[in-house]
Amino acid sequence: MSEAQSVTDAVVTRSASDLTAFQQNILAILSEEPMYGLAIKRELESYYGSEVNHGRLYPNLDDLVEDGLVEKSELDKRTNQYELTEAGHDAVLGQLEWVLDRFVTDEARADEVRALLGE
Fold first, then answer.
1. Which segments constitute the Transcription regulator PadR N-terminal domain (predicted)?
2. pLDDT digits (tens, 9 = 90+) for 51-72
3. What value, to the nearest 5°, has the Cα angle with vertex 74 and ends 73 and 79?
């Protein structure tokens, strides 16, 4: 096997269970639409109610790109756009399913979830 094949085979997409809560929140934000870094930062700050440091955001975005969960493209020379990949979509869906499987333990809780979804 060639060295190139070894490197290609070594790329493994992490699942939602391997991600930090911060990374899962980034994926949830990108589920809505592609965004540039500062827009993601603002969404996170709104959720956390405090400042999100660039030194925390961008390394996590880079990790998600490296894991194949987010795609990074250049909007202009200074601005990158981040978009959820199909694998990222699957990771978000998998995390939601895992949480709901544990949360919905009876009909009352099922009703709470239905109310959140507007059903």
1. 26-91
2. 999 999 999 999 999 999 999 9
3. 120
* Segment 74-99, tens digit of pLDDT: 988 899 999 999 999 999 999 999 99
Phi-psi region of 68 (alpha: psi -120 to 50; beta: other; left: phi over 0): left
Under 8 Å between Cβ of 29 and 35: yes
Q: At what angle do helices 54-66 and 21-32 cross, to 10 degrees?
A: 80
Question: How far apart, in whole angstroms, are the C-alpha atoms of residue 112 and residue 119?
Answer: 10
Rounded CA-CA distance 45/48 in Å is 5
pTM: 0.83
